[in-house]
Write a structure and sequence with these properties.
It comes from candidate division GN15 bacterium. This protein has 417 residues and is α+β, with helices and mostly antiparallel strands. It contains 8 helices and 23 strands. Helix content is 18%, strand content 33%.
């Protein structure tokens, strides 16, 4: 050994059991904290994405108010096309057999996945069956998305307007029934329904019980068959207030309709007539069931639950006095069948005798049926105002029997002169 050199042994002592245990505990704690943080982040991400999907589904049902075209809301979803809330989420992607369905109503990325739009981020099915909320249960604690505060917010809205002619004249009492306002709306069952109204003497009108959406509006001056064809936008919770102005391009109303040859007055039931053979519903007297100026459809009507005819006729309001000759008397009856069979024959009663129009086959929805007389059938000569003052009108009606009646909800008489 070299003198003066010292030999040193290196310290290669390993970790003790206590130190190793402490290290493992620290690693375990850190791993647990990391896993808990990661789990929380994943759950938060799933919740956020589920809430976004539920908002997307809600917009598919009621529309997206942020989508605007020509300064008007352009998106009304499933309700805007159908007039009802969907029975389930599948109806947003697959047409349930409705002619007015224009879906799919959800973005294409979701629609392409057969099940994805119906499942939350935990794989649980969204709960929805036609109500006002969509809910997710996959998180354990339910997540609820409110679609609307009330169904009426989207299904029972109003719209108002006023009608004038080219000279800003109003219809007045003489001409108000010469104007028919027709709005076409989805009927809630995949079809379309036309609702008809007449303005007040001031030209004002109000349309009620309208679903949200963009709907065709026709304003018709009947004597000239002149039609203003427009479209109205109905918003959620819309009430009659703001009144839109509509004007014909001709002076129809000035001077009460321009004298003879272009005027019309409407006569409505105001009492029982000589024949009352139909069953009533929703009213205390048969004539009251059909007297309203705006048809109330199934709220009140007369009916025939038999496949043989029965007749109702009613006393009518008297027309205003006029020196003009009468051109025609037309009876209008608004009616429908409830099954596969039903017929109606608009009728008048004058001079102690009943006179019927041609039989007309009823449809399953309410439609106006008419019959016209250009001369008095009791005399064979032209109508006189005295004839009209004693005129009664109504209908012969038959259904199918066996619990399948035919209904008539409205009757009125149009006198042109």
């Amino acid at each position: 050994m070299v003198s003066g050199m010292k030999c040193r042994l290196a310290n290669n002592r390993g970790m003790s059991l206590i130190e190793l245990t402490i290290l493992l505990v620290v690693i375990g704690v850190l791993t647990g904290v990391a896993m808990k943080t990661m789990t929380t982040s994943v759950e938060d991400a799933r919740r956020v994405k589920t809430e976004r999907e539920m908002s997307m589904l809600a917009k598919a049902i009621v529309g997206d108010p942020s989508l605007v075209a020509s300064s008007r809301r352009a998106s009304f979803g499933y309700i805007g096309d159908i007039g009802a809330f969907p029975p389930n989420l599948t109806a947003l992607v697959t047409n349930p057999g409705y002619s007015t369905w224009k879906g799919p109503y959800i973005p294409s990325g979701f629609a392409e996945d057969a099940d994805g739009y119906r499942l939350d981020e935990w794989g649980a099915a969204y709960a929805y069956s036609g109500g006002l909320t969509i809910s997710s249960s996959g998180h354990g604690t339910p997540i609820v998305k409110k679609i609307a505060d009330a169904a009426s917010d989207y299904l029972l809205n109003a719209y108002s307007g006023v009608i004038r002619d080219a000279s800003d004249s109003l219809p007045g009492n003489l001409q108000k029934d010469s104007v028919t306002i027709q709005v076409i709306i989805p009927d809630g069952a995949g079809g379309l329904h036309a609702k008809t109204y007449h303005p007040l003497a001031t030209g004002q009108f109000q349309l009620d019980s309208l679903p949200v959406g963009q709907h065709p509006l026709n304003i018709i001056y009947e004597p000239q068959h002149d039609t203003l064809a427009r479209a109205i936008t109905v918003l959620p919770r819309q009430k009659a207030g703001v009144t839109d102005l509509y004007k014909f391009a001709v002076d129809y109303f000035a001077g009460g309709g321009g004298g003879c040859g272009g005027s019309m007055t409407a006569l409505r039931p105001n009492g029982a007539g000589a024949m009352t053979n139909l069953t009533r519903s929703g009213c205390s007297a048969n004539w009251q069931c059909v007297a309203e100026a705006t048809a109330d459809e199934d709220a009140s009507y007369v009916e025939r639950n038999d496949n043989s005819y029965a007749t109702d006729v009613y006393a009518l309001t008297n027309p205003p006095s006029s020196p003009c000759p009468i051109l025609s008397v037309t009876v209008h009856c608004r009616a429908r069948r409830t099954h596969t069979q039903g017929d109606i024959r608009p009728a008048i009663y004058i001079g102690g005798a009943e006179y019927d129009g041609a039989a007309q086959w009823l449809t399953a929805t309410y439609v106006d049926y008419t019959a016209q007389w250009t001369t008095n059938p009791a005399t064979g000569t032209g109508w006189t105002w005295s004839d009209v003052n004693i005129l009664q009108a109504g209908m012969r009606l038959r259904g199918q029997g066996g619990g399948h009646p035919a209904y008539c909800t409205q009757v009125w008489v149009e006198v042109r002169y």
